[in-house]
Amino acid sequence: MLDGEIHLELSGETDTGISYGGRLQLLPAAKPRDNGSFVQAGWAWGEFRLGDYGGAAKEMMISAPTIGIGQIDGDLDRFGGPSALIAPYGLNNDDSTKLTYLSPVLFGLRAGLSFTPELSGGGVELVPMPHVDGIDRHRDVTEFAISAARDVGDATVTAAGVYVVGDATAASHLHGLNGGGLGAKLVWDALTIGGGFVYDGAGTLPPDHRPGHVLLDRIVSEFNFGASYQLGRWKLGASWAHDYRKAEASNDIWAAGVDYRIVDGLTVAADLMRFTKPRGAGLAVGDALFLETALHF
Known about the structure:
The protein has one helix at residues 56-60, and strands at residues 6-13, 19-27, 38-43, 46-51, 98-102, 109-118, 138-152, 155-168, 177-188, 191-199, 219-231, 234-245, 248-263, 266-279, 282-295. It has a single domain, classed as Porin. Helices cover 2% and strands 55% of the residues. The chain is mainly β. It is built from one helix and 15 strands. A 15-stranded antiparallel sheet has the order 1-2-3-4-5-6-7-8-9-10-11-12-13-14-15.
């Protein structure tokens, strides 16, 4: 496969200390979770962002660290395999227009708040082709997030929690959104260790088997854990995700990855994965190897 993405980012600061900027997506990102355009403005009291790049859940949820192709949050789902949930309701992979506020760090604490009038068809909601306006299933979706960081010797420990709530339309036959997540990580020199827990509940999402959303509608909760290490031009990572599913066997994804920078702007990467996938009353087991060469300019 040959993928490419083009985006334009601008930023600046006024004489009075107000920062401003924006991101314009000119070509859909190779990884859908990286899509998004927004404008932002901030000052000493925090930052406001308007656009579809993701809100408080995407920005502040902590999960297993990944490198290169992404391991449990990588490209396997583009070929019909399972992917990790990572954030409540897959909102790390949602392109709905939302208003987000991110506070500055005060005494080691940071807060985030997002409001989405409608979850769009390009995100976690199922939309038939051609798109019909007004069929979105969840509205007035609010994301709350808070994180805390503290230095412990030479290491930095960060913990975060997010909560998502939203109403389902009466005709959707779905439950309202009422989920959240907790995560923590430790960074010590070139080593990062971390993981998270996500709870979605059951009956909240409609089926959507597009790449990036494979079987997310059946996940009730998920644990993920992993580590990454950087050594010069090399980056190494390993991660694991285990989910609990409604009326199906639980699913596991194990993955290891490597990323090597040949020169600035040119990298090669590989992911080796083993995964289980619900099949009937049992599980199917599969293995996958992904290789990638990437040029950044």
